[in-house]
Amino acid sequence: IELDLIDPTLLKDRCYVDGAWVGTAKTDVTNPATGAVIGRVPHFGADETTAAVDAAAAAFKGWAARTAKERSKLIRQWYERIIAHREDLALILTSEQGKPLAESRGEIDYAASYIEFYAEEAKRIAGETLPSHRADARILVLRQPMGIVGAITPWNFPAAMITRKAGPAIAAGCPIVVKPAGETPLTALALAELADRAGIPKGVFNVVTGDAKEIGGVLTSHPAIRLVNFTGSTEIGKLLMRQAAGTVKKVALELGGNAPFIVFDDADLDAAVEGAMVSKFRNMGQTCVCANRIYAQAGIHDAFVEKLTAAVAKLSVGNGTAEGVTQGPLINDKAIAKVEEHLADATSKGAKVMLGGHRHRLGGTFFEPTVLTGASAAMKLAREETFGPVAPVFRFETEEEVIAAANDTEFGLAAYFYARDIGRIFRVGEGLEYGMVGINSGLISTELAPFGGVKESGNGREGSHHGIDEFVEKKYLLLAGL
Ligand code: ADP
């Protein structure tokens, strides 16, 4: 274990429950760029998870009873510590996840921004009074913390997917038990160490690692849990939703996407290429808002493909810690297998490889950034998320045709399009059945906006003042006899 950290005590090998470090180090965490073991974490099952939820439940009353300002101050302290340890957190993140260090630094800033925002928002969770139906009565609506939150998060954003949930939960007064992805538990545990140093009271923020099924089983059935908050695959999201039905828990799901990225004839082509690069190749194509299908209108198709291919050719593949690298390894063998499956299927159905198309000569899970043309609706990559560095370009003729094609999916998370005509911008912006639409931008994520999907991409929103809604219940008080 040789991570060169400024503060080595951020590297944890135990779980964080009830303000204490518990469990014994069992499961290896490996670096996808090298295969080296970089840490070890406990393998919790149902019993240990139940204990964590019990601890969170014991902390609930005290935490909820604090003034908003007290909660705000402690959450702000957590933010300050995340920023102060940005460099170490980024190195831990890259080492377990693979993304280039510059992207990891960006993720830490992005993750911290949710903690900062919700530290502020804690003071603005206001109720209301409504016009009453009786002269002798008043109607009050309180927004109260809903209870204990069980959160399950994925490996593609090991820090931000946690803070997006923990920030608003804790701000609203809800203790939270987080299960990070098995691939990336070390970032989560480092965040717990910093929460501890910030003085977040015991039991309010907990991190458990181990058996996904058993932990998920407890988080969806324990009577104290009121909200199951999940980011990950649609398949597991549906499973958790079914499990949560047993005790009628609220569920907030952020699931898979199949983002269309549309370039119209009137687009600024250079801007569109820049946006496509960010949207498609960030995190090696492993984000749920990554452009999955790139549609280019006939008038600019060839010019766009040429510019895109030239830009993709400049990407540099390697270990994320190396200077200048823009593409790290994919997370694991399963990820590589899916990319290869989609490529083989596409080329067998007529797609043409303009660039890349193979595993990278570095071996492991490195893959060549790839551009395809001649993509069509019959291909797997049109229906499923490829979650890898493959940019398939579809040619289209009309606005109506491309809106229909873009919406022809069970997913509805993010969509993007590039155009200048104001009428078209409104028609397409309103016509796309997606929770988020980037217009002349390939990057939409910010703590200041509500992030989330429609259709099978999930429900609920994370970020902005709307993000608090998942964590509060509205209680109606009728105050009569006045
Ligand atoms: P991916 O295939 O990208 O890893 P998953 O949906 O499988 O996406 O993983 C997202 C999160 O869900 C991870 O934390 C993972 O450990 C967790 N997970 C996987 N299977 C289950 C399950 N049966 N119950 C609860 N959580 C699960």
In brief:
By secondary structure, this protein is an alpha/beta fold. Helices cover 38% and strands 20% of the residues. The chain is built from 14 helices and 19 strands.
* Spatial sequence of strands, sheet with the most strands: 14-15-16-13-12-17-18
Rg from Cα = 23 Å
Round the mean pLDDT to the nearest integer and report it.
98
Extract low-pLDDT stretches.
Answer: none
Number of H/I helices: 14
Envelope shape: globular
Major sheet size, sense and barrel closure:
7 strands, mixed
Question: What is the helix content?
Answer: 25-40%
N- and C-termini, Cα separation: 69 Å
- Tell me the β content: 15-25%
- Class by SSE composition: alpha/beta
Bound molecules: adenosine-5'-diphosphate
Q: Could you give the count of β-strands?
A: 19
Structural description of this entry:
Helix 6 links the parallel strand 8 (176-179) and strand 9. The chain is globular. The protein has 14 helices and 19 strands. The N and C termini lie far apart (69 Å). Strands 14-15-16-13-12-17-18 form a seven-stranded mixed sheet, sandwiched between helices. The model has no long low-confidence stretch (mean pLDDT 98). With 482 residues, the chain is an alpha/beta fold. Adenosine-5'-diphosphate (ADP) is lined by residues 152-154, 179, 181-182, 212-213, 216, 232-233, 236, 239.
